[in-house]
Amino acid sequence: MRHTPPTRSPTPDAKRTCTEIPSDKAGPSTSSWTRHPVHYGKGIHLAPMVRSGTMPTRLLALEAGAELVWTPETVDRAIIGCERRVDPKTGVITYIKSHKPVLTLHPVERPRLIFQLGSANPDLAAEAAKIIYQDVAGIDLNCGCPKHFSVHAGMGAGLLLDPDKLCAILQAIRASIPPEVPVSCKIRMLPSQEDTLSLVRQIADTGTINCLTVHCRTPPMRDREPAMKHRLKDIVQSVGKKVVVVENGDCVGYESAQQILQQTTARAVMIARAAEANPTCFLPDGPKDAETYLIPRYVRLAKYLDHHWSNTKFCLAQFTSPDPHLGKHGRLEWKKAINGAKSYEELRLLWGKEAGFFEGGEEILAGIQHALRARGRSAPELGVLSTPGPALSQQSASSVIDPAPPDPILVREIQAVV
Ligand SMILES: Cc1cc2nc3c(=O)[nH]c(=O)nc-3n(C[C@H](O)[C@H](O)[C@H](O)COP(=O)(O)O)c2cc1C
């Protein structure tokens, strides 16, 4: 097991991203793997989602054009004491405890991966941040989860009622990690706008965060109630220019993001449920078909990455598309097979597909890496919405395998972390 980060200096770009945080607020200045600027204020991000926002979903969201992707919330005590393992074949990094995976990620997503932490304790938060920062682009504090287990323990939306503790946790995280690793937090609105404004000012005044995501609902509000986007404009103004504000709530894709940016003046938008239903929703032309494109691609990628079947099955069961290519009967047959299968192989047999049908995940991963590198190189600093990688934007729904060759830099990175 190893928690020591590889010793490569941050790039000049990485240094640029951390200038907003004064050095007296930041932690040790150890070097790390090559970091790129973290564009919180550009494009559309994938929201943190327990169970649904796992590694294959995040990779496909990035391929479709998501700028940044959040991990599902992981509680501080879960990450503390984990062993870090790297699969020498695929490069997959797993934080594991008591033989159970706590968090799984891939070096391909690392420059755009934000780790979301659940915590009610500054010391534990700092300890967890120190362990995980080596493998992620940034660290986010969950201050919005309204679930009983979270609030009861003083975490999630519980922190909205104790802003001093919330700020103390942010300060502790900031002080525990190098300045090139940005910190953010995700909140819900409070019932009163005045209280919300005072809360966000207090958070911004800590000088510890680069980004604030605002889920435009209050903790008791259900997801079926419309997000209160009309309240965000004042919040953006009161936070000022130093902190990027990201809107969250009711965005369903590229076009809807454009409208939300205009209405709220937020710098970027974050999507949860629409991406849970179809992670290709980030594409400017709308999501690709679930059965003929997304599901085979997801299964191939997940199988190559050795992603555990139970989570793959759960995610596949959520996928849908607005205008399904298969008829109603065909869709039902696919869903029935997913529900009945106990393994990747069983699913292939239930679908009646040939032996090699689930092969090709390695090429899909290489294609995603290739697309992200191309996007990174061409990323316009002043762009509002990012565009998907060329691999996906030029593909038809029937060409599910991206022929891009493995990237030698990726191969070297994988070798470096093993
Ligand atoms: C399945 C699921 C899991 C979620 N898990 C988290 C989580 O781990 N952390 C968090 O801050 N929010 C979580 N959320 C809330 C979303 O990130 C988001 O704030 C909310 O769904 C509103 O966005 P939407 O209207 O795009 O769905 C979750 C939502 C869903 C649907």
Summed up, what is this model?
Residues 46-283 form the DUS-like FMN-binding domain. With 418 residues, this protein is α/β, with parallel strands linked by helices.
The helix/strand series, from N terminus to C terminus, equals HEHEEHEEEEHEHHEHEHEHEHHHHHHHH
The named CATH superfamily of the largest domain = Aldolase class I
Structural class category: alpha/beta
The percent range for helix content is 25-40%
Bound molecules: flavin mononucleotide
Point out poorly predicted stretches: 1-23, 379-418
The main sheet comes to: 9 strands, parallel
The domain tally reads 2
Radius of gyration: 20 Å
Strand content: 5-15%
Number of separate strands: 12
Give me the oligomer status. Answer: single chain
Might you state the CATH topology name of the largest domain? TIM Barrel
* Average pLDDT metric: 85
The gross shape turns out to be: globular
CATH architecture of the largest domain: Alpha-Beta Barrel
Number of helices: 17
CATH top level class name of the largest domain: Alpha Beta
